[in-house]
Amino acid sequence: MASRACVGRRIARRLTASPRRRGLARAAGFAVLVVLVGATASAAGAGAQRSSRSGTPSPTPILTPARTRTPTASPTPTVTPTPTPWVMGGALGRCTSADVRVRKEVRTLTRTERRRFVAAVAALVKSGVFSEFVPVHYRWGAHGRASFFPWHRLYLLEFEDALRSVDPLVTLPFWDWSQDAARPADSIVWGDDLLGGATPGDCIPSGPFAGIERLFPVRRCVWRGFTAADVGRNTMGGQTFEDAATIQAAIAAPTTYHGFRLAIEVAHGSPHSAIGAAEIVGRSSDPARTGEMRLPSLAPSDPAFYVHHAYVDSLWARRQDAPGRSATEYGGRRASRLDRLIPFGNAIVADTFSLPCVRYQDPLPAAEAGVEPPAVPRGARTPVPTPSPAAAEREEARAAVAAERAPRAAVQADFARAVGQSVAEVVAGEELLEEAATEALLDGTLAVRVLLREGGGRGGGRWGAGIRLVPRHNGTAAVL
Ligand SMILES: [Cu+2]
């Protein structure tokens, strides 16, 4: 218990640090301006937005391709983009059981599916529709409240609808980042046939979105804050994500919708922070030197946002389908199923409980990619569990979990505060994740991997600080 209180105090201390909050307040001021300008420009229509390409100064597009490649020796004159018929707000009405699509994990996409998805996103970037999503998330995005899941479910549906206006065969895939929990920089999503690479504090260097830009608060190419090129070096500043066993335990946890939302919303901060700012000097203290994914106001400027949040949405769907749960379970402070979801027409929370047109592919077996079985390096001693009463065993497991989670918890808490979650909510979310990981460790779906010698660090108790929790994959134990 001592270590839990210690982690809690550390989290609370981090949360009260203020320099970044001042920076975000500055960013917020810019954001309001851009939202207002964006709204005006939207009213003027898509054609007006595109006029900015002809040289007329226009503040509207937030994200545009860096360079337009001129086709060489083309016999046809310059192609003028035709206005897209797609308009934000109609996706729910078009979502019927006659138009079911199955969202797949990125690893299972065929080559053709990848190509079509990436091409559709690139087309939205080019048309300016992609940029229209950014201020919508900033202005109305639901964070730190019950509607976190419903609001983002509709937002994703709108994005998928926009993709399908380009190519009706495209379905939004999801990135199960728990599969890459230990080595997120090595994930296949950073390949040049999906999201492309990363250079800390610089433009996206490769792939289909190389050099894409946003104009707010200053025109700049979209940054990622980690090194995707150094495969095998566990870059991303050494940050790790929640593993598949912990996620599954959180889904199965005997808690309310409110508790589940707290746990997952906190957990989802890891990819945001790591993709946005893992290795950028100064980390998240200065919005001008931070990757977009780390900034709630700008996160959807990076296509990574959508595959990340699609996974978050799939976790809600799994919870809704879990034994003893229901699709209509909902609640939180002053939360009602009848709450409107702005700006999506007349949509209310209850409309999102079960979308007739969306299904998720079954989750991958845990640890299929990138996680090694527990191994003890030379000089380390494997902890030998001694017979002990259940309570003592639980306490020992909890201490190991708390020690392993501490750095990740601090990063998650930092991001959660940036999106407006209260200290109490963040601490509660972290405790639920800690509890989930403890359960997974006790039921054997998680295992301790010793990285340093026993007793070799602060706060690590008998197992030392150098431990990592990894899903045990013997083919059956870590089934999701
Ligand atoms: Cu998010």
Give the distinct bound molecules: copper (II) ion
Per DSSP, what share of the residues sits in E-state strands of 2 or more residues?
Answer: 5-15%
N-to-C span: 29 Å
The level of helicity is 40-55%
H/E element order: HHHEHEHHHEEEEHHHHEHHEE
Number of distinct helices = 13
Question: How many β-strand stretches?
Answer: 9
Structural class: mainly alpha
* Uncertain runs: 1-81, 368-381, 453-465, 474-480
Note the quaternary state here: single chain
Which whole number gives the mean pLDDT?
77
Q: What characteristic shape results from the CA principal axes?
A: globular
Strand order of the largest sheet: 1-4-5
**Main β sheet profile:** 3 strands, antiparallel
Tag the structure with descriptive keywords:
mainly alpha; three-stranded antiparallel beta sheet; two-stranded parallel sheet; 13 helices; 9 strands; globular; binds copper (II) ion
